[in-house]
Design brief:
The chain has 115 residues and is α+β, with helices and mostly antiparallel strands. The chain has two helices and four strands. It has a single domain, classed as Aminopeptidase. The chain has a four-stranded antiparallel sheet with strand order 1-2-3-4, covered by helices on one side. Helix 1 (15-24) packs antiparallel against helix 2. It is globular, with a radius of gyration of 14 Å.
Length: 115
């Protein structure tokens, strides 16, 4: 089962391994994500969040939501997302990681028209 969790103060188990995996693939944005989150530069303000995805209890991916300042309407920006290699869809058949719309998601996700 996929579980999305908002992170506050402590990184989850597997966080440093995920950062190292990303770095090994040449993905630098995860090191930036970790640094920005730890020093409070991102994902700490109202309307922002650092989210971790767990599948079968293991950290499968991570990414952040931030306020989009250049939008004329309230909007959020998905920022610095990374999904671990074994959890990526490669043939289009794995639909588990697709977000499902719920009342809980409305506090974070909203299109600029407000719906």
């Amino acid at each position: 089962m996929l579980q999305i969790v908002r992170l506050f103060d402590e990184p989850p188990d597997g966080f440093d391994d995920l950062i190292a995996e990303a770095s090994g693939e040449g993905v630098r944005n995860m090191a930036l994500l970790a640094e920005d989150w730890r020093n409070g530069a991102r994902f700490q303000d109202d309307g922002e969040a650092l989210l971790a995805a767990f599948l079968a209890g293991e950290l499968a991916g991570i990414g952040g939501l931030s306020v989009e300042p250049d939008s004329s309407e309230p909007a959020r920006r998905l920022r610095r997302f990374y999904v671990r290699t074994p959890r990526r869809r490669t043939d289009g058949s794995d639909r588990r990681a697709r977000p499902k719309r719920s009342d809980d998601s409305r506090q974070w996700l909203r299109n600029p028209s407000g719906t």
